[in-house]
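Complex 236.
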Amino acid sequence: MPENTLAGRLEKLRGELRTAAAAGGWPAPKLIAVSKTHPLEEILPLKALGVTDVGENRVQEIRAKLPGLKENFHIHLIGQLQRNKVRAIIGDVCLIQSLDRWELALEIDRQAQAHGLRMPVLVQLSPAGEPQKGGLPPEEAEDFIRRCGGLPGLEVRGLMAVMPDWRDETALEPLFRQMRTRFDRLREEAPGGAALTELSMGMSGDCLIAARCGATMVRVGSAIFGPRVYPDRPAV
Ligand SMILES: *Cc1c(COP(=O)(O)O)cnc(C)c1O
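Predicted structure with pyridoxal-5'-phosphate bound:
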């Protein structure tokens, strides 16, 4: 399978993820194909290739690509979310991966209840303390998840992290390992009754390290679609 086709890149990626996960003694992580900036006609062929889940980071872009996205995939919101946008996507996404502040938790809870649903979320942590990428300080996770247990419209399913863009694997790997350790500890403690099953970490540049360190989900864009074109690619 040639590596310059969508099917070829996907097959190569899946094989590498399986191998990396097995090397760490883990099952292969679920692949979330990050389709942000790509038009529907580039995304839809993924369905026939077995991709079931896509990730998008902008509410406006999700709206623009509905209903095609929703009819064919589970949509994950992976980007920083403004409170006033929650209402626009609450019924269309399967998982909000970027919950990182209390006011946002309250608004998701409010909108979920108004829609008669319980919204699955991941709590985003900031393992390297990079505020521009979003995420709570890791040491606040336990308390935050416990408080979320009091919100009936919210269901905390796990943790998410965006790692720093370091090239140095030996510096990066400990951050992934610490995330897995924290995830295992929180899963055992189940603060507020939360059943934590998902650990979302790893992107195109670092998803193999993530798989080796026990990610249950990886979010991969450019390794599947090819590089993104910024900034003037027309929205669909
Ligand atoms: C864009 C994005 C990704 C995917 O990035 P690639 O490097 O293209 O794989 C993953 N996670 C988040 C939060 C993103 O914004």
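The pocket of pyridoxal-5'-phosphate is lined by residues 34, 36, 57, 78-79, 162, 203-205, 219-223 (CB under 6 Å).
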